[in-house]
Amino acid sequence: MSADTDYSKGELSADTDYSKGELSADADYSNRELSADADGLIANTGECDTDGEVLVIKQRWCCHLPPSPYPMYLANVFCIAAYYINSLLLQDLLYNKICYQKFQNLSLCTDSTFSTKHPELQEVVVKWYNYHSALSIPLTMLLNLMLSSYCDKIGHKLPYLLPCLGTALSAVYLAVIASPQFITWPLPTIFVFSIVSSAFGSFPTILMTSFSYCGLVARVDNRSLVMGLCEASILVGVFIGNLITGPIIDSIGLPSMAYINAGISLLPLPVVLILLTDVTTEANLSNNWRNVVKLAHILDAFKCVFKKREGSKRLRLNLVFVSYTCIFMASAGASGNSFLYLVKSKGFSLTLYSVFNSYSAILKTISCPLILYVCKRFIKPQEHTIGLVAISCAAIGYIIVPIDILPYSVWIGVTFFSLDLLAYAVIRSIQLSCCEKNELGLIFAYDAIIQSTFGLTGSIGIKALYSATLTTWNGMYLAICALLTIISLSAFVWLSLLKLREKFSN
Q1: Can you give the C-alpha Rg of the chain in angstroms?
Q2: Which strands form 279-280's sheet, in the order they lie side by side?
Q3: pLDDT value of residue 410
Q4: 254-264 and 157-177 helices cross at what angle (nearest 10)?
Q5: What is the pLDDT of residues 427-459, one digit of tens each?
């Protein structure tokens, strides 16, 4: 990708080289005067060229960096880590409050040995956490849909900053109510946390903004790698949240960890404000949030997905969503039951279970992007081929895990189904190819809704199935995960055949 933008008279001059699949930039600002307002904001707009499409560079602070997905990757790691730590702390806080109400002894409630003797407390925690989720989802989805048009017409900074700010404010509130002196506050006080975190967009808006931004600045020949790294950055945030929360709570307690997370939640803000160069395909700079953030726009994402498109693009786009929904439900269901299946049924120790999760995380966040890079740089297969292989491997993995007669079946199986990140990367790349660049916010808003709603329902449904079949065959839920993955594979084969037929007809 090359960009040449003249900054004389308020326009930027930059030359960006993406040769050999790497993003490099050479921006020449010599002998150029940049105008700044009284607040020090450099209010300049410029243009850069991405695969033949002009992207308008929006306002930015301090750093004059070319459009790049790397600041978004870094912001994802920080923001998702804080968001995930919040969810873990909330569950721990709920348990402490419920336990204290019954036993009136906080030190007893924080004893891990005591908790194993009272499983009924966990059931109450699950019930209240479901109340939190039920309250959060409608607000989150509404704001996600309303901000999708903002991303396409104005930019991505504000839509990304909002959930980061919501995470930070909710982390501060959680740190306050996690203090021992407030342990007697009634359980409904957690709903303030629910409203604060969801009113700013929360997790779905992070997904929508980060994927639409990365898709906008990615080159056509490198889209699957860029989207795969974006997915991996989210998983790295989850992994870090898992890695540090338990040991810190065990060492210094829940209240201290809550205050630490309040600090962690602030880290993505300077990354987005300073390092992220905002771009849009919308040349009309008179657009403002009043024009695009309206209730009238909440159905735009659904209209965009189902609108008539050239050739078979509409059918392929919807088949992509079917494929993605099925494989994501399988993944959410498998991970949601992994603790009960491996620790309670297979006899894994907690340490071995942590090793299992770490191994899966390393495969997803390091091995999968590396495989994509090698494929793009050296082997150069078709994207659809990578997707077919990845989804097939996931189905094989779910089938292998419950085969007890096979030595190391769990480890062989997780090696296979952890490759599903390759499928996610290819699926998101296909989504980009089926729509225009001024529709990415709408497309990924719809995508985020699917990931949030079907991920939750898939996890709950498959967990209920696991409980129902526990006495007959505890691996039945993995068979259902394999079936969902086979349905995903069937939809992916269909869309691949449509693409192939379209290619030969042309």
Answers
A1: 24
A2: 46-50, 53-57, 279-280
A3: 94
A4: 160
A5: 999 999 999 888 999 999 999 888 888 877 787
Cα angle 266, 76, 447; round to 5: 130
Provide long-range contacts, Cβ within 8 A and 24+ apart, for 503-506.
Answer: none
User: Among residues 72, 204, 194, which one has the least CA distance to residue 146?
Assistant: 204
Per-residue model confidence (pLDDT) at position 402: 93
Pair 213, 223: CB distance under 8 Å:
no
Three-state DSSP class for residue 264: helix
205's tokens: 């808006």
What's the CA gap between 23 and 51, in Å, rounded?
14
Is the distance from CB of 390 to CB of 422 less than 8 angstroms?
yes
Cβ atoms of 29 and 64 closer than 8 Å: yes
DSSP-derived pairing of the beta strands 53-57 and 46-50: antiparallel
- Residue 263 and residue 102 in contact, taking contact as beta carbons nearer than 8 Å: no
Dihedral angle computed from the Cα positions of residues 444, 445, 449 and 455, in that order, rounded to the nearest 10 degrees:
30
Alpha-carbon dihedral 128, 129, 133, 135, rounded to 10 degrees: 30
Contact 58, 45 (CB under 8 A): yes
Q: Provide the 10 A C-beta neighbour count for residue 185.
A: 13
Tokens of 224: 């699957």
Rounded-to-integer distance, Cα 280 and Cα 284, Å:
10
Q: What pairs with residue 42 in β-bridges? A: 36, 60
Alpha-carbon span 236 to 419, nearest angstrom: 15
At 458, list the tokens.
Answer: 């898939």
Residue 55 parent element (H or E): strand 53-57
CA-based nearest residue to 98, from 118, 114, 121, 80: 121
Do 198 and 45 contact (CB within 8 A), yes or no?
A: no
Distance between first and last Cα of the chain: 27
User: What tokens does 222 get?
Assistant: 């490198």
Instruction: Name the token pair of 320.
Output: 């992509």
- CA–CA gap between residue 287 and residue 479 (Å, rounded): 50
Contact present, 86 and 171 (Cβ < 8 Å): yes
| Residue 460 vs residues 91, 204, 466: alpha-carbon distances, Å | 17, 19, 10
Which candidate, 316, 321, 317, places its Cα nearest to that of 487?
A: 321
Q: What is the DSSP letter of 182?
A: G
Residue spans of the chain under pLDDT 70: 1-55, 58-64, 112-113, 115-116, 119, 282-297, 350
Q: What whole-number distance in Å separates Cα of residue 67 and Cα of residue 72? A: 10
Dist CA 128 CA 96 (whole Å) = 13
Alpha-carbon distance values, 332 to 164, 457, 494 (Å): 24, 9, 24
Tokens of 330: 């399988």
